[in-house]
TrEMBL record:
The organism's taxonomic lineage, starting at the top: Bacteria, Bacillati, Chloroflexota, Ktedonobacteria, Ktedonobacterales
Protein's recorded name: 3-hydroxyacyl-CoA dehydrogenase
Pfam families the record matches: 3HCDH (PF00725), 3HCDH_N (PF02737), ECH_1 (PF00378)
3-hydroxyacyl-CoA dehydrogenase C-terminal domain: residues covered: 194-293
Reaction catalyzed: a (3S)-3-hydroxyacyl-CoA + NAD(+) = a 3-oxoacyl-CoA + NADH + H(+)
PANTHER family given in the database record: 3-HYDROXYACYL-COA DEHYDROGENASE FAMILY PROTEIN, 3-HYDROXYACYL-COA DEHYDROGENASE-RELATED
Length: 801
């Protein structure tokens, strides 16, 4: 019978188990969260209860919305084990000891239904070892599902089947992990610590050993091997602190014990100084100190100290400056940055070259052993450790530059796999043919398409290849944005300014997409492949215009943005927004004006203009009022609580620059409608948005979808404004806000309550737009707002002046 997961159970309510239960709730799957009963416990569910409570308080948040906790039922494995017969998937997440896991499996086997999927969240124990002694049916329905911490945010999910796993179970779990859980799934061979921890632990431990041998400090290493080497800001030692030094020790010990044939086995012996740190209980973030320690200063601020390996004392971090790092910072792509650092002649470049050579040689030598292809290895490193480039993507940076290759691998022999791709392939592990990315298959020495989720839409591939009609898929490109033919009568409006900030070019392309695009397309999707949908308006232009007194220019720019958004709202064809990452300020306003939104679950949406001393000026106030019930039609007697409620609710959210922490929370805040849809996997967001657009286009053709009709708003007027202004005055008197915060708040209150309008006479949308524009321009003219904008532009910091 085909597999299906409707309800799950997680056994083990520690950090990982509780977070897995939380993420199941995020995607709508109810679960049991079970753990042991402590001796003499009055509350037999205390461990599971505590695990759930900690998860609810965790930062960053484990739940999309705290309401999701209603889908998690706590219990214990003594009283509630029979309930496992009700679930489709049991995830074991108990302590990393084979004997304890096997003892638990024997109990599970007695109560679970024969078709129940059973998996372990072990971070490195071999799957075949865990199922020793189990029945044929148990082994058939068992595999490892290795999530990474924090579960909600780390994309990687490693699947490790055994030789006995049902051949139909692996593709089901791969599909389920990708489409339902939103994970990046890689298939691992049943080897110690699988892919990510095998390659990652080696890279980490070999780097520590080089740092100790050559006298590099903790902060030096993290400065060198951070973003400019395609790594996250936490780099090496900070990453270890975040994951826990005890976790590192466990992974290393497991590899040393279970990989006796590994030629680098000695590397997995924990250095004495690191073992001493662990023995002292300095385990990183969880214990308050590890390679770093945060200390409170007398003034309430904090300072992060670094550990001195020689003295085991914590010391202030000095500033490290390297020519190669400075050069890399000014470059754009990860490939360019990595090349710049590796090509340098300073102390940073030396460490970068040696550690890169160590890690790349190890990955190439392990590839056949741990994975079926290089793509899974690269995905594991990028999704599991937030690297910009995987191991073989980094190999390609070097293989394309013979001089750099010679420099990095001086006195070292290139691995057999690298020699194979040079002699039997095109000389690189990846290539692009007609917009399609292909990888070198080391089994056949041929290039194969990089696997993707079903139906994935790649804008970069579309732009590189002709459309189905033979013409270019790019209908129009003006430098700031492109209109791209997605096929099936659907177009995509893609932004490509820095941070996708909205400028004149984007406004111009919105006009083209609606006015001209509607003549040849059935519907429009607004989306992109960047980390963020849009960070809002171009603040630099706003600041320059204000300081130069170019008020006509600013007035025209705001009017143009308002008109563009109105054009989207009243478009004759359906418009679907597809936000991912940040959609702030003008980006949020654009979403508010579309007919439907297909949002990535990890979307952070908000009207944040008050943070830079402004208010929403592109129609955001108007649309947010409507989202909260200010439509005159809904304000008829008996239909609402009156016109003040929408204004007050909108004010409470906009006045403090509230940003949703997920798409689910965006629905609760009404930045998104309840009817809007959520996708959990970034790779398929545009696919799903296009499908939504097709449905709306079909509905239009069937006569069941109509363009939006002009709306009237009923706003409460000056009396309600006085109430909000009194609240602002109270916050000012108690020191909760600054004087300029009060100025901004009063402008916002005036707009949201409708200025001097009558509380019984509806006003037009344009009336509210005029109020928005007037307030926006007035605030632009103040020195304190200009100072706030400058602070954001220069350092990304909010100034509370």
């Amino acid at each position: 019978m085909p597999y299906a997961i409707r309800k799950a159970a997680v056994i083990g309510a520690g950090v990982m188990g509780a977070a897995i239960a939380a993420h199941l709730a995020n995607v709508g799957i109810p679960s049991l969260l079970l753990d042991i009963v402590p001796a003499d416990a009055k509350d037999r569910n205390i461990i599971a209860r505590t695990g759930l409570e900690k998860t609810l308080k965790s930062k960053p948040a484990s739940f999309y919305s705290k309401r999701g906790a209603q889908l998690v039922t706590i219990g214990n494995i003594e009283d509630d084990l029979p309930k496992l017969a009700e679930v489709d998937w049991i995830i074991e997440a108990v302590v990393e000891r084979p004997d304890i896991k096997q003892s638990l499996y024997s109990k599970i086997e007695q109560v679970a239904r024969p078709e129940t999927i059973i998996t372990s969240n072990t971070s490195g124990l071999p799957a075949h070892l865990l199922v020793e002694g189990r029945s044929e049916n148990f082994r058939r329905h068992f595999m490892i599902t290795h999530f990474f911490n924090p579960v909600r945010y780390m994309r990687l999910l490693e699947l490790v089947p055994t030789a006995d796993t049902d051949p139909a179970l692996l593709p089901f779990m791969q599909q389920f992990g990708t489409e339902t859980l939103g994970k990046g799934v890689v298939i691992c061979k049943d080897t110690p610590n699988f892919i990510a921890n095998r390659i990652g632990a080696y890279g980490f431990l070999s780097t520590i050993q080089r740092a100790l041998d050559e006298g590099y400090t903790v902060s030096e290493v993290d400065t060198i091997l951070g973003p400019n080497m395609g790594r996250p800001k936490s780099a090496v030692f900070r990453t270890a602190d975040l994951s826990g030094l005890d976790t590192l020790m466990h992974v290393a010990n497991n590899l040393y014990k279970n990989a006796p044939e590994d030629e680098q086995r000695a590397t997995f012996q924990i250095p004495e100084v690191v073992q001493e740190i662990i023995n002292r209980g300095w385990l990183g973030e969880k214990s308050g100190q590890g390679f770093y320690k945060r200390v409170k200063n007398a003034d309430g601020s904090s300072t992060i100290l670094e550990l001195n390996f020689k003295t085991l004392e914590y010391e202030p971090q000095p500033k490290h400056r390297f020519d190669s790092i400075g050069k890399a910072r000014n470059l754009e792509t990860p490939e360019q940055k990595v090349s710049a650092v590796l090509n340098g002649e300073d102390r940073a470049s030396h460490l970068a070259r040696e550690t890169t050579a160590d890690a790349l040689i190890y990955a190439a030598n392990r590839a056949h052993e741990i994975a079926d292809n290089i793509v899974d290895i690269d995905h594991a490193m990028c999704w599991g450790f937030n690297f910009d480039l995987g191991s073989f993507e980094t190999w390609d940076v070097l293989l394309k530059d013979q001089a750099l290759l010679d420099k990095v691998f001086a006195q070292r022999e290139l691995p057999a796999l690298v020699q194979q791709v040079r002699s039997q392939g095109d000389g690189t592990f990846y290539r692009t043919v007609e917009g399609q990315k292909q990888y070198f298959d080391y089994h056949t020495s041929t290039y194969q398409p990089v696997p993707t989720a079903q139906g994935v839409i790649s804008l970069s591939a579309l732009k590189a290849s002709p459309s189905s009609t033979g013409s270019s898929s790019v209908v129009r490109d003006n430098g700031s944005a492109s209109l791209i033919d997605l096929g099936d009568g659907i177009a995509c409006l893609e932004f490509h300014t820095k941070m996708n900030s909205i400028d004149e070019g984007i406004v111009e392309m919105i006009h083209y997409a609606v006015e001209e695009g509607s003549k040849q397309f059935r519907a429009l999707v607004i989306g992109n492949e960047a980390p963020d949908f849009s960070a809002g308006a171009n603040l630099f232009l706003v600041l320059m215009g204000a300081r130069q007194g170019a008020w006509d220019m600013l007035d025209g720019a705001i009017t143009g943005l308002q008109q563009a958004h109105q054009l989207l709202k009243y478009s004759p064809i359906p418009v679907v927004a597809a936000p991912a990452g940040r959609a702030l300020g003008g980006g949020c306003e654009m979403i508010l004006h579309t007919h439907h939104t297909r949002a990535l679950a990890e979307s952070y949406i908000g009207l944040v203009e008050v943070g830079v001393g402004l208010i929403p000026g592109g129609g955001g106030c108007k649309e947010f009022l409507l989202r909260h019930g200010a439509n005159a039609e809904s304000q008829k007697p008996g239909k609402s609580s009156g016109p003040f409620t929408p204004a007050r609710r909108a004010f409470e959210i906009i006045a403090v620059a509230t940003v949703s922490t997920s798409a689910t929370e965006a629905q609760e805040l009404r930045f998104l409608r309840k009817t809007d849809a959520i996708t959990v996997n970034r790779d398929v967001l545009l696919r799903d948005a296009k499908a939504d657009a097709i449905k709306l286009a079909d509905a239009k053709e069937a006569g069941t979808w109509q363009p939006v009709q002009p709306q009237m708003l009923l706003l409460p007027g000056a009396g309600a404004r006085l109430v909000l202004e009194q609240q602002i005055e109270g916050m000012l008197l108690t020191g909760k806000i600054s004087e300029h915060d009060a100025v901004i708040g009063n402008h916002l209150a005036r707009v949201l309550t409708g200025g001097d309008c009558s509380p019984v006479t509806p006003v037009t949308e344009q009336y509210v737009l005029d109020l928005e524009r007037e307030a926006f321009l007035s605030l632009c003219g103040t020195e304190k707002t200009q100072a706030r904008i400058q602070s954001i532009l220069q350092g990304g910091k909010t100034l509370r002046n």
